Each structure stands twice: as C-alpha cells, then as structure tokens.
Amino acid sequence: xxWRQILKRSANARVVASKSLKxxxxxxxxxxxxxxxxxxxxxxxxxxxKVSLIRPELLARRRDEDxxxxxxxxxxxxxxxxxxxxxxxxxxxxxxxxxxxxKTIKSSQDKTVDIFEGMAVVELAKQSGASITTLQDIxxxxxxxxxxxxxxLSIDVAELVVMELGFNxxxxxxxxxxxxxxxxxxxxxxxxxxxxxxxxxxxxxxxxLVAKEAGGITQHMGAFVVGMSTGASITFLDTPGHAAxxxxxxxxxxxxxxxxxxxxxxxxxxxxxxxxxAHANAANVPIVVAINKCxxxxxxxxxxxxxxxxxxxxLEDWGGKVQVVEVSAVKKTGLDDLEVAxxxxxxxxxxxxxxxxxxxxxxxxxRLDKGRGPxxxxxxxxxxxxxxxxxxxxxxxxxxxxxxxxxxKSTDKARPAMPVEIEGLKGLPMAGDDIIVVDSEERARMLSxxxxxxxxxxxxxxxxxxxxxxxxxxxxxxxxxEMPVIVKADVQGxxxxxxxxxxxxxSPQLFVNVVHVGVGSVTQxxxxxxxxxxxxxxxxxxxxxxxxxSQAATQAGIKILMHSIIYHLLDDFGNxxxxxxxxxxxxxxxxxxxxxxxxxxxxxSKAKGDDVKIAGCRVIDGCFTRSSTMRLLRSGEVVFxxxxxxxxxxxxxxxxxxxxxxxxxxxxxxxxFQVGDIIQCLExxxxxxxxxxxxxGTVRIEC
Length: 703
Description:
alpha+beta; 6-stranded mixed beta sheet; 36 strands; elongated; Tr-type G domain-containing protein
C-alpha cells in the first residue's frame, strides 16, 4: 500500500515537472536513478528526456507548503493574468465617427500618350510604360493578332490599347502624301461684342447675316467661303463677341491660320479684345488688325493703335509684323486693303495640305435637325472627306450619308480648308472634336465604345476628386443651397456656352447644378426630369414648347425661361438665383437712444427679485423694439450687450418706441448706467446676394 502511494505521488510530480521544465538537467536524472532503482520504467511525456524518479524531499517540501497555504512564485506570477468575464453589463455605445477619406493624388490617368500610324508594339510599350505582354493581351481582347513585337499597328488599334490602359490619347498625323497642294487660308474674325465683326463679313461677301441674328449680335459660330475680287478664296470663321462665348472663340483660334482682330475706332480695346489676343497668342496664330467704324465722327484710329501697342502687339507702322487696316463695314471702304493683307499673310505662311488619303477634319458646330437628324459643321484640315465613309467624331460614330457646302449644295467630297455640313452621325458630337475616318463599321463601333467608356471613367473620377476636395467644409461657412438647371439650345456649341455662362453665377450661398443639357426644343421628358429633381428649364434660341408641355410645367410648378438673346437670359436667370439664395443674417442698428436719467427701484420682495436700475432714454434715431438685443456704448466703446427685459413709455409696457419719444428700459444683468451713455437697438436682417452685370457682358453674384 505504501509503494502504491509512492508511485502515485511520483506520477503527479512527474506531470508537474513536465509542465515547468522542458528539459531536466542530467544531474537530476543521474541522482534520481541512483536513489530509487525501482522506478526505472517510468518516463516523461517528452521523448528527448528520461526521468525515473524525483527526489522525495522535494515532494515532501511541496506538500508542506500547500498544507500551510503557501504559494510558489510561479503561482503568484499567474495571479491576475486571467480574469473572469463580467456578465450582464452591456458594452459601451460610442458614436460612430466615419474615417476621413484621404485626398486622391493625381494619378497616371492624366498622362497623355502620343500615337501615330504604323506604331510598333515596342514603341507603344515605351510611350505608355506598360509591358509588352500586357499590350499583347489587350490586342488579343480587341481582336488583333500580332505575331511580333515589332509589327506595326494601325492608329485606331493603338488608340484602343491606350484607352484600355486608362491614358489619354493624342493622335499625331503625318503631313506627308503623294499630292500636296496649296490651300486657302482659314481666317477667324474675333473681337469685342458690337464692334462690327459680322457686318464686316457681310460687306465682304455681299450678304446680311446681322439681320438674322437675335438682338443684332452673333450668338453662333459660322463658317463660310468668300471669293475675293482677285479670284482667290478665303475660309472665314465668325465667332461671337459676348463674354459668355469664350469657349467658341478659343475653338476658333485653335483651328485657324490667321486671326482678324476687329476693333471699333470709336470704342477702342475692350475685355473681349484682350481675350481674343490671348487666344491667338496661345494658338501661335498671326494677327491682322482691322479697325472698323472709321466713318463715325468719334472714330480715333490712332488711339486704338496706341492701346494695342500697350497690350504688346508689334504693329507694322511701328516696325513690327502685325498689319493694321482701317475699314468701314457700312461705307464698304478699306475692304480691298484687308483682302490684300490677308492674302499677303497667307502667302508668307506658304499654306499647303495633303489632298490624298483619309481626311482629318475639325467640328465647328453641331445641331439637331428634325428631318435629317444630327448635323455637324466641320472644316477639313487635310486629306479628302468622301461621302459614304465611316467616321468617328468624339465618342459618336456614323456613316456619312450626305455632304453639303455652306450654301446647301450637295457634294461628293470635301477638300482641305473647305467648310462642310455632314449628315449621318448616330448622335451629336461636341464642338471641337476631331473627325477620324476608319476602315469599317466594326472598327468605328469599337472606337466609339472605347471612347465612351473612357469619357465616363474620367467624368466619375473628376466628380470624386471634387467631392474629396470639399470633404471638410468650414464650420463658419453655411451650407450652400443647390439650384438644379436643365439647359436646351439650338446647337451644341451654344449649349456649352450657355452652360458655362450659368455656372459663373455660382456663389458661396447657392450652387448652380446643370443636371441635363440637350439640343432641341423643350419636351415632356425634360419637364418630367425637372419635376423629379426640382429643376428649372432654360431654353435658348429654341422654339416655344407645345401647349401641352407648357401646361404640364405650370401644373408641376416648374419655371421655364425662354430667351433668344444672351443678355436677357443672364439677367433673368441672375435674378432667379438671387431669389433662390437663402441669404445671410446680419446684425444692423435699428435705433439709438441717449441715457438722460437713471431710476432705481429698491425694497422689492424676494419673489420679485433684486433691486432694478432703469435707464431713462430718448430715442434719437430709428426705433426701439423690446424683443431686440441692446448694445451699451460709453465714450464710443462697446461696454455691454444684452437682451431687453422691460420697455415702458409713460408707465405702460410697449413693444416699440419711435424716434423722438422718451422711454425707460431695463437690460438683463446690467445695472451700471451713466448719464450720456448711448444704447443701440440691434436687429437681425436677412441680406440677399446681389446680381451684378458689367458693361462688358460679364455677370456675377456678389454676396
């Protein structure tokens, strides 16, 4: 029985030793084996260590410590390591604080890759920074089989690959060809509004376009060919002069060879004149100055020359290269001199273009015709545009059904510097897009689809970047109200101009949000969209909506602004923005009073409160209101501000006291009145922003 107890205790000791010691020293093993040979068959669980017996005195010492309530150091070290979970107490609920999104760094998607016809895969990989394997996988996805990395690609396939990578594309076309011939110059007429640009063109081509424009000002971009008396022909682009059509003038300067800067002799250099000079210099286009209205009594051409020289134009009269011609569109004087100046400038530039091969054209304007569909006005830059070709214009595509010149006569082809009207696109392109001729309908569909995807990705990315920039608005700045707007106009270029002009009316109080734009008259779908988002509809230079559409808009409470002159549109919409703006509350002085005497009420009961000091005053300006805040001035400095708790006149409680009357008032928590103090009555006034329109045509909202 004693041996069984010894064996049992030895086994327990062995388990404790195996947990506390990974390996036992060899000295312990040797001494244990020599002391008790009867326990040689017992082993530890660890295979690498063998212990036959633990010394009995160690076991006895452990039993003594446990019996007296003593604990070893190991047990003390484990105290507090594990705690019992408290049940019944709910977790602490803290308010959720969303993480602050980080500002996105300008990504490589803004990178532009130059591509050209016959570009090899190796060159494309070098330009884009992508690996050859990645490019080959994309080529397989678009249906192109490339056996070698040095095999040339067509420019359309290269654009598809670059757009798949997420980069912007810039096409570089070769000017080389088997047939290179001289071409007519493309001349853009620019200048300030009402300086006689269209009248000058009418005098050159013996027509009257000014009478057809609403308000007598140009609000569209026109292109036409004028045959000169010498037999030469010049392609003219007429641009609007109003401040709202800045984008149109910029497009005109980008596609032109020569800029004719029209300046009125009686008006001089104006804001849009300076803007036209800046656009021409940015496009690196030579300028020919035409000083118009020289027949007027107030004309002063020398003053105009001095102003142009001060703006940095090197005039020919002063030893520079800029030619200056004095003309009169009304009297038709100086037109021959202008013709000679333009032809001389074109001859110096030696303008030539490739005639053979696929055409490269530029969209000047786009509009929607009820019977013929989308119509695009374009100028051919190189090559020959042939009827029946498949083209891609921006992110739209189509097959050319008809080509007409600017007179309306049908033609089979269009040569360089020739403005034409193209019919057959599936949708309306944007003014300023390039026209690209492709081999087949399938290639046109693929290129258009790729451009649409790229355009949508860029649009979403731009919206996200704008939201990220406005993540943390200041607490002092009130939240801006939003005014949704739907814009409808007659042509695509006018839609862009009107949209940009309306966005200039943004203010810290109100944000003009253009939710939809389109070409054509106002329809029922526009009214439905406006009702869904609470927008107003702006129709510019379009026909009045049908009676059913107008009645539906009236029943839904939707405002429709119909105008044909940009001045009237901006004035009407600016006043609407002012009405919709929430405004800000400002503190203003409603009245002033002078303290003439001081009265004190003493001996009041505890229920009525402490003693009260009353200021006897006379209102010297404005009026006093009991519900307003009072400001106490002493020697011109603000001493105290507080609310009025009592206002009496002739022992009667009153709400207001007018100018010239005497009254007694008590200000909460203030008792130190002095004779001669000035008390101001303050009131909160709602101040609306102001709509400001300058003489140059620019508009803004001033808060």
